[in-house]
Inverse folding.
């Protein structure tokens, strides 16, 4: 039985670290209570604040960072749609891949927007029609200007993600509610 002691010790130590992180994330999510009605799921691997906003279910999830990825705030609104859409910022690597013809992104025929964002969709014409609206493009820009680095529609939901240097320091309830309002505007147009 003695040879198992180090394994048990490591398991208990890892579990206590996980529990401390989970408790800290739940405390961070509780800061939303005065701003947004909802509940924090119990017994969840990922602490998640859920509720209803403008008649749609939402989830706000905090993901701890690791050595190679920063902590992340994910804001999700649930609504079914036939369109799938992924928007990220253009970067030098994506521009290079485009020049080589390795990527086929959706262009919305707005040179400034097309230069800023990388857009993929299962229905390019439908995505173009959706993103031709200047209000939609401005809302997308505002989300990215607020630090979000991805906006996705996957047929069941729309969600956006924001990397953080520290979940506790970078989690500002007003900004989270503002982002939820923006993605609700985006999903209403789908």
């Amino acid at each position: 039985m003695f040879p198992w002691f180090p394994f048990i010790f490591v398991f208990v130590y890892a579990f206590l670290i996980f529990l401390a992180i989970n408790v800290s994330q739940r405390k961070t999510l509780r800061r939303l209570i005065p701003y947004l009605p909802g509940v924090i799921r119990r017994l969840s691997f990922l602490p998640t604040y859920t509720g209803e906003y403008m008649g749609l279910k939402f989830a706000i999830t905090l993901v701890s960072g690791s050595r190679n990825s920063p902590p992340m705030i994910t804001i999700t609104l649930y609504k079914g749609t036939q369109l799938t859409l992924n928007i990220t910022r253009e970067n030098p690597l994506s521009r290079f891949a485009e020049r080589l013809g390795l990527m086929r992104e959706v262009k919305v025929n707005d040179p400034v927007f097309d230069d800023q964002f990388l857009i993929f969709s299962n229905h390019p014409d439908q995505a173009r029609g959706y993103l031709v609206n200047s209000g939609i493009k401005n809302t997308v820009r505002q989300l990215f200007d607020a630090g979000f680095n991805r906006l996705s529609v996957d047929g069941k939901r729309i969600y956006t993600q924001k990397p953080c240097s520290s979940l506790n320091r970078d989690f500002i309830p007003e900004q989270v509610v503002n982002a939820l309002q923006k993605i609700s505007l985006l999903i209403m147009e789908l």
Observations:
- The first helix runs from residue 5 to 30.
- Strands lie at 39-40, 48-53, 56-63, 72-78, 84-89, 117-121, 150-154, 157-163.
- The chain has a mean pLDDT of 86.
- The helical segments are 5-30, 92-99, 111-116, 124-131, 134-145, 167-170, 173-188.
